[in-house]
Write a structure and sequence with these properties.
This protein is an all-alpha fold. The chain is 69% helix and 0% strand. The protein has 6 helices and no strands. Helix 1 packs across helix 2. The protein starts with a helix and ends with a helix. The mean pLDDT is 85.
Length: 81
């Protein structure tokens, strides 16, 4: 939206960011969807479909200890939620 406004009205990006109250960091950092996140989500769906009583803890321990993935528990939990 900021780029569209800046290009249509011929104002600078910095001024458009100030108008919309968007910081420089937020403007330049685009969210990246990693293919590993898709892989984590697929594993979690597969595990929870097969093992209905497993919560996050057992799923994470299975992925870490049995499958040998080195994913961080905070990352896996974010995707689990």
């Amino acid at each position: 939206m900021i780029r569209e406004t800046a290009s249509k009205t011929a104002i600078f990006i910095r001024l458009a960011r100030e108008i919309f109250s968007v910081s420089q960091t937020c403007y330049h950092d685009a969210a990246k969807r990693d293919s590993e996140n898709d892989q984590i989500a697929n594993w979690l769906l597969r595990l929870t479909d097969n093992h209905h009583s497993w919560g996050f803890g057992l799923c994470f321990l299975y992925l870490r200890n049995v499958k040998g993935f080195g994913w961080n528990h905070k990352r896996v939990y974010r995707i689990y939620r």
